[in-house]
Amino acid sequence: MPALPFKPVLLWTDALVFVLLAAVIAFAWQVRRREHLRQPWVKVSRSRLGMVSAVLLCVFVAIGLLDSLHFRPRLSADAADGRANYAVETMSVFDLMVTGLRTRPETTYSAPLATHLYAKETVEGPDGRQIRVYPRLKYGGAHLQDPERDWAPDVLRRAVAGVAAAALLWNLVLAGAIAWLAARRGQGFRATWQTVWRGQTDVPWREMLATAGVLLLLFGPAAMLAAKYHLLGTDKVGQDVFYLALKSIRTGLVIGTLTTLVMLPLALLLGIMAGYFRGWIDDVIQYVYTTLNSIPGVLLIAAAVLMTQAYMDSRPGLFDTVQQRQDLRLLFLCLILGMTSWTGLCRLLRGEALKLREMEYIQAAQAFGVADLRIITRHILPNVMHIVLISVVMDFSGLVLAEAVLSYVGVGVDPTMISFGTMINAARLEMAREPMVWWSLAAAFVFMLMLVLSANLFADAVRDAFDPRIGGRTGRLGFLARFKTAGGA
Amino acid sequence: MLAYLLRRVLYAIPILIGVNLITFALFFFVNSPDDMARLALGEKRVTQEAIDRWKRDKGYDKPLLYNPQAQGAAKLTDTIFFTKSARMFAFDFGRADDGRDIAGEIRTRMWPSLAIAIPTFLIGLACYVTFAMLLAFFRATYIDVAGVVLCVVAMSISGLFYIIGGQYLVAKLWNLVPISGYGAGLSAWKFVVLPVAVGVVGGVGASARWYRTIFLEEMNKDYVRTARAKGLTEARVLFRHVLHNAMIPILTGVVVVIPLLFLGSLLTESFFAIPGLGSYTIEAINNQDYSVVRAMVYLGSVLYIVGLVLTDISYTLVDPRVRFD
């Protein structure tokens, strides 16, 4: 068998991410076929803010998924016995796509789009004397003959070219989307375009396409400029900040999603058991979660992370590569965060199960002698899924924010792992520099805000659609109409 | 009432025992004292004598739970569990790695923490309630929409950025107060202002939004409609009727955090170099001083449980409908 040009690597978190993806697809398949399950999602798809943020989230998720396909590239030289040699370093498909960003390190700080380093260095002049100058960057703007003269026209030209390319691409996307909609609605292309343009569609296509357009218009110039410059500058060791920010997305997504995934079985099992069986089972489960809950979260996480850290430090044989260690620590962090945060969901589920078990249809099932297990899986589980869903989407943004804080405190991800927390942590000392290095902080801030804000807005749309109790009255932005009918001021 | 409170306090005891067992398991079963010694000594090849000496110095040279070599009751008391964990019930936390008494450290360090935490809590509560009431008063107008959008954006910004931004703007750019540090006595005020302001601003998103929901829920009730039907002005309805009743869930919701104010805030204190309990914990985490972390975990749980009991008391005080049998 001929050796592959790469060797696939499945890290623990990758595997779980793909399990989650498969679960989401399976869930979507189920929902598609059932009218009553589809109804709340139809409501979500009508929410303007929710769908705009969904478009944004899709971009983040796509980057995160590409960054979760890991492999080890083949080295050019084969081993002596004719077998293929693979690099020690694990790469992701996303790394491969942005090779340009990854493989052009400078020596230290440089400002966004700069052609020179941010710090003076002593170099030997042509006449042999030592002079202090800002040296040219090795890669950033290296194609310019005379940076003083060429820099501004070159940047402008690239930006304009990027915008033009993006506009062209957006037109294609627009035309494709409208044609698809037209085919689905059985309308002419022109009529469909007019309905979309006037915002008369049920699903807010106009807003979604506009969001995609804005994203493309940002992405076009960014890609053109990043090809020859460091778009967001470089950090202390000369790494491209734009690359760091993009890589942080996966870490954030993994923490935000896997944490809930790992705690879900436990919370579901214990919560439903406590509510359904009551009696001593309820007492024991309540005792367990009250006890766990009474330890302040940060402290419990800190203690647990310190201990796993010590455990991993004293057993270096657990992993072969740096990536594996990073990955294992990320997984442990998810597990620990999950262990401290399942109590809230567990309590909610217990309350719901307590309520459900008094329902007539469940009493009827019990009277017919249906086994408890079957009642739980057939009748209780489907009826608490909306609570699970709401808490999964609501927890996401909080977990992404928590990662940054924990990494700052020193109990977050592995210090060598790229994440928003480690970026902020490294950038903190740069505040004191004169003149200040602001771009790493700014990049982390903007990327994190985009991710968390879109997650928050989407979560609100989901909650409004699924929670019949609060959805009708205190929904977020759709409440204008409701208040007018409810006879408010 | 008294019987109920007594029952609540008694109920807290098994929880505290559980917390103690969890921390004990976390700190002594995941890693044996030998592992910890090896890490603390930090060398690749550590002799068994060095490990034994380290364990003897720290008092870890005992069996974990049961000592078969001791006599009588000492079979149980001459163990790591009894000397390290069970003593925490009496708030005897032992000594930190630098030899200082942890309980003494806590007593001196809680004052700076309180100097930051209490003003943040009180000013924050006043600001959030006012803001939420403003939004509720202007409900269904663009002011309300803008306010809620502002809250969501504010919620989406990491707390780290509030601190960094505050330090940069107020202390570095405008030079109004020192960037960080702490002073003794009343001269500490200029070190306290910025952390308090940052703390208040940082919490506005989540709290104001939540309080607004409570206000709106209250406003949909029948008694409010009756009050309006009587011809009361909207302001009077809001302040006399809605505010009073909405304060019940708000107050009972915040009472639980009051005891935890002692612990201070990890982030704020470490960024502003305030010698409180928060920065004590961070230092302990960074120095891997497990006895201090263990003590703080236990103390935090005790304070949380105290908060729960206080919440129950506050229910009976503010809401006469609540009765205990």
Calculate the mean pLDDT score of chain A and round it: 84
Overall geometric form of chain A: globular
Largest sheet of chain A: 3 strands, antiparallel
- Find the biggest chain interface: A-B, 55 and 58 residues
Strand order of the largest sheet of chain A: 1-2-3
Strand content of chain A: under 5%
Helix content of chain B: 55-70%
Contiguous runs where pLDDT drops below 50 for at least 5 residues of chain A: 470-489
Number of strands of chain A: 5
In DSSP terms (H or I, runs of 4 or more residues), the helix count of chain B works out at 15
Helix proportion range of chain A: 55-70%
* Structural class based on helices, strands and sheet pairing of chain B: mainly alpha
From the alpha carbons, calculate the radius of gyration of chain A and give it in angstroms. Answer: 27 Å
Tell me the series of helices and strands of chain A, N- to C-terminal: EHHHEEHHEEHHHHHHHHHHHHH
The largest β sheet of chain B comes out as: none
